[in-house]
């Protein structure tokens, strides 16, 4: 099989879009947090907790949608705590977010060992690819875009919803004002804390959902290493995507195809060491976060700056 | 009609407002006058819901109202143009205008309708502005129009303007006054916070003077005079008339030749600047903000990479010298941004006072605390820093007192050349009087002073020569004795005049 054959291209792109799904979902949520002025680094941990919650719910209920809902609820609850720290306590967002990720890893590992390590649960119910009639028969775009799972379709719908909410509603205008110039938002009669709570809660719900997505549509089991930095990659995608849902979707596809490329290259058996290939998506993320591709100029001006009203 | 009655507000350690009464009638421009720290801003922030008052009440048309947030104030028809504008730079004018409004149908934004309403309002009130422009790209004067349009869009009946002319050029100022008179004619109440006496005499109908948190007088403008208002505001007679010693200039001490500087974006900010500065001389630098004046001061101090040209201090080439070397050779600097560049907010006066020459405060390489405190004490007494001791943090000082600390520190280093940027920006007459006196005392001692200022009055009063900068060049040097404000204004707008023969 050659790298340039159509079969390879289709397999590669399909895998790319599939792998980009959960990070895109998490990135969409993070876009809301960051647009409101909150840098929620805790989404890495929330992804893990969401994955755990969905796996446990799946084992106990066998349902498909209930675990997804449980993942979202877990993310929401975790974000409520984080929002309290970020907005009410006005703690350092970077420190709280990073430490929360360590805490989440501890919680996930403990719960997993206590409840599941010695049991051997059978396979869980997973989302299967849904072929959309007619369009899935088109060459290349059919198999790559229209033969994916329901969570991916849902994520793509959310791209449109997120764009609309941010740029065409009063809520989006207020949220963006809170992240760009909180004093101006305050003077205009907008509650900055409320906007920032909402932004953080949206990012938490989306990251939780993305954790469930990972388990229920991609992996089908739980390990405490399951997230493997995808939350951080989502943070990179937000920057790469210039805090815009559309561009985040493109950035997630770039990440996904990089990831898929390293998988494909491993299968093809290149002479490159496996570790080097594995690192490709992470290197791309670091480059994106560093800002060398630009983007610093469009960063929300009050990002990660706590806001205190005057006495 | 809006009435503030017996408003009292305490902050830890001070009473910002002490039982203040203020009444503003419809169709009236009411000026609120006071020194920095007199409590004007606090009072306005209470009226706009940014601060909560400890006691007192606010009556709107005789009805008692409760204002606990800006949203409450807006709902009651009270709007405010803050000194630092409350605009989101990345938003369009239309987005900024409707930010926070609950109007129209549901949760959707209708930017098209907002834009057409803004066009209507801007035509009606002569406030030309493009609703689709990105706010951050607009000149300051236009941003202020956006702020006023925001209030008109909400149909505010009471408009509060905090130091509205601080950032405006003279023509912009007159346009603003015309707009405000038009709004008065519609029966709106306008409250303008200022410490500029001549603006009050020109624009306002009535004036309330505040001092130390109290209302010391509310009078009709026609029944008072500038000197009387100054006396009410400061609490003593103020003398701004300057008498200068005529001193023959000696040989030049600072010599700048064909200096060129670029900014971070590669834009040329200084183009072939040449000037000579002599002992016993104040060389004024005039210009509209952003025409290279700050860059010139920074380049002299070594804060900018120099692209071409040379700087000679006392015959020595310091073009490549580091900041500390330049200071050691007798250069001193009072920057325009006294809060962020001139001082460190969370350090005490004592620590701030030794920042520029830490070495001279040590014994056996360790700081000598006694010496440092004594030095701070000297500055506080000699320069009249009020309500502070050597341990007071810079952040707790008013603008005037902080400026005295900074100027005092620089003067105490016995400089040969003193570079001063906007020394009295935002200060009240009392503080201006003492800063001017200090600068003239330095001139008499023989210090050469480069004075960058946006206040023409300041330049005309203090300077021996005035160089006008436009787009990074010196477009002319004039003699203040024969120059007029109009002439300088023309040159600042880029019309070169024939030099009057005093350039060297």
TrEMBL record, chain A:
Keyword field: Cell membrane, Membrane, Sugar transport, Transmembrane, Transmembrane helix, Transport
Taxonomic superkingdom: Bacteria
GO terms for MF: transmembrane transporter activity
Coiled coil: none
Record-level GO cellular component terms: plasma membrane
Residues annotated as transmembrane: 36-57, 64-87, 93-112, 152-173, 197-219, 225-243
Entry keyword Transmembrane: yes
Membrane topology: Multi-pass membrane protein
InterPro entries: ABC_transp_permease
One matching Pfam family: BPD_transp_2
Intracellular or extracellular location(s): Cell membrane
Name of the protein described by the UniProt record: Simple sugar transport system permease protein
From TrEMBL, chain B:
GO molecular function terms attached to this record: ATP binding; ATP hydrolysis activity
Compartment(s): Cell membrane
InterPro entries cross-referenced by the UniProt entry: AAA+_ATPase (IPR003593), ABC_carbohydrate_import_ATPase (IPR050107), ABC_transporter-like_ATP-bd (IPR003439), ABC_transporter-like_CS (IPR017871), P-loop_NTPase (IPR027417)
Keywords for this protein: ATP-binding, Cell membrane, Membrane, Nucleotide-binding, Repeat, Sugar transport, Translocase, Transport
Keyword DNA-binding: no
Segment forming the signal sequence: none
GO cellular component terms given for this protein: plasma membrane
Limits of the ABC transporter domain: 2-237, 254-496
SUPFAM superfamilies: P-loop containing nucleoside triphosphate hydrolases (SSF52540)
Topology term for the membrane: Peripheral membrane protein
Protein name: Simple sugar transport system ATP-binding protein
Organism per entry: Granulicella aggregans
């Amino acid at each position: 099989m050659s790298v340039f054959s159509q079969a390879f291209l289709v397999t590669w792109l399909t895998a790319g879009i599939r792998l980009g799904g959960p990070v895109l979902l998490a990135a969409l949520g993070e876009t809301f947090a960051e647009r409101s002025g909150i840098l929620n680094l805790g989404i890495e941990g929330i992804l893990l907790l969401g994955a755990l919650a969905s796996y446990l719910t799946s084992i106990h209920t066998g349902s498909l949608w209930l675990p997804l809902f449980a993942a979202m609820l877990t993310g929401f609850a975790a974000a409520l705590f984080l929002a309290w720290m970020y907005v009410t306590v006005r703690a350092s967002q970077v420190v709280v977010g990073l430490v929360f990720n360590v805490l989440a890893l501890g919680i996930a590992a403990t719960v997993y060992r206590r409840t599941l390590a010695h049991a051997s649960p059978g396979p869980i119910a997973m989302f299967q690819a849904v072929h959309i009639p007619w369009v899935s028969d088109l060459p290349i775009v059919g198999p790559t875009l229209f033969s994916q799972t329901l969570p991916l379709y849902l994520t793509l719908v959310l791209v449109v919803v997120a764009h609309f909410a941010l740029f065409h509603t009063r809520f989006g205008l207020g949220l963006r004002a809170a992240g760009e110039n909180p004093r101006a938002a305050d003077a205009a009669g907008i509650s900055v804390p409320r906007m920032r709570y909402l932004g953080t809660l949206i990012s938490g719900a989306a990251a939780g959902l993305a954790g469930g997505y990972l388990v229920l549509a991609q992996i089908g089991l739980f390990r405490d290493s399951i997230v493997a930095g995808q939350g951080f990659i989502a943070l990179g995608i937000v920057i790469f995507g210039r805090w815009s849902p559309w561009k985040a979707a493109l950035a997630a596809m770039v990440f996904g195809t990089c990831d898929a490329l390293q998988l494909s290259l491993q299968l093809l058996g290149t002479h490159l060491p496996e570790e080097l290939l594995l690192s490709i998506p992470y290197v791309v993320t670091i480059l994106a976060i560093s800002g060398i591709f630009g983007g610093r100029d469009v960063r929300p001006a009050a990002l990660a700056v706590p806001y205190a009203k005057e006495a | 009609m809006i009435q503030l009655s017996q408003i009292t507000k305490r902050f830890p350690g001070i009473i910002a407002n002490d039982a203040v009464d203020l009444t503003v009638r419809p169709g009236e421009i009411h000026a609120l006058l006071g020194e920095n720290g007199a409590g004007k801003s606090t009072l306005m922030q209470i009226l706009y819901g940014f601060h909560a008052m400890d006691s007192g009440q606010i009556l709107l048309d005789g009805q008692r109202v409760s204002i606990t947030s800006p949203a409450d104030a807006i709902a009651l028809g009270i709007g405010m143009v803050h000194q630092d504008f409350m605009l989101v730079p990345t938003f369009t004018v239309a987005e900024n205008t409707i930010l926070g409004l609950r109007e129209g149908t549901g949760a959707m934004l209708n930017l098209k309708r907002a834009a057409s309403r803004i066009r209507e309002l801007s035509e009606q009130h002569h406030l030309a502005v493009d609703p689709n422009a990105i706010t951050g790209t607009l000149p300051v004067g236009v941003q202020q129009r956006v702020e006023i349009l925001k209030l008109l869009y909400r149909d505010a009946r009471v408009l509060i303007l905090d130091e509205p002319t601080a950032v405006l050029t003279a023509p912009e100022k007159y346009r603003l006054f015309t707009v405000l008179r038009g709004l008065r004619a519609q029966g709106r109440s306008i409250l303008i916070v200022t410490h500029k006496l001549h603006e009050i005499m020109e624009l306002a109908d009535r004036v309330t003077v505040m001092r130390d948190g109290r209302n010391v007088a509310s009078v009709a403008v026609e029944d008072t005079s500038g000197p009387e208002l100054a006396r009410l505001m400061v609490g003593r007679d103020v003398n701004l008339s300057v008498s200068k010693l005529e001193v023959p200039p000696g040989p030049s001490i600072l010599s700048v030749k064909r200096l060129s500087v670029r900014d971070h974006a590669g834009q040329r900010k200084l183009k072939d600047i040449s000037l000579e500065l002599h002992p016993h001389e104040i060389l004024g630098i005039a210009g509209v903000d952003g025409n290279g004046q700050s860059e010139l001061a920074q380049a002299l101090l070594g804060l900018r990479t120099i692209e071409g040209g040379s700087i000679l201090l006392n015959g020595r080439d310091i073009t490549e010298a580091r900041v500390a070397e330049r200071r050691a050779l007798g250069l001193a600097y009072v920057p325009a941004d006294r809060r962020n560049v001139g001082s460190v907010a969370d350090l005490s006066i004592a620590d701030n006072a030794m920042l520029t020459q830490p070495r001279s405060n040590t014994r056996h390489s360790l700081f000598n605390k006694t010496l440092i405190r004594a030095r701070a004490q000297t500055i506080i007494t000699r320069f009249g820093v009020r309500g502070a001791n050597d341990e007071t943090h810079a952040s707790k000082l008013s603008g005037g007192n902080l400026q005295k600390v900074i100027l005092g520190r620089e003067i105490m280093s016995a400089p040969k050349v003193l570079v001063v940027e906007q020394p009295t920006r935002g200060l009240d007459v009392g503080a201006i009087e003492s800063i001017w006196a200090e600068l003239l005392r330095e001139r008499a001692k023989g210090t050469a002073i480069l004075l960058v200022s946006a206040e023409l009055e300041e330049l005309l009063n203090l300077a021996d020569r005035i160089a006008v900068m436009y787009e990074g060049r010196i477009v002319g040097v004039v003699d203040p004795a024969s120059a007029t404000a109009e002439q300088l204004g023309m040159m600042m707008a880029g019309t070169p005049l024939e030099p009057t023969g005093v350039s060297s």
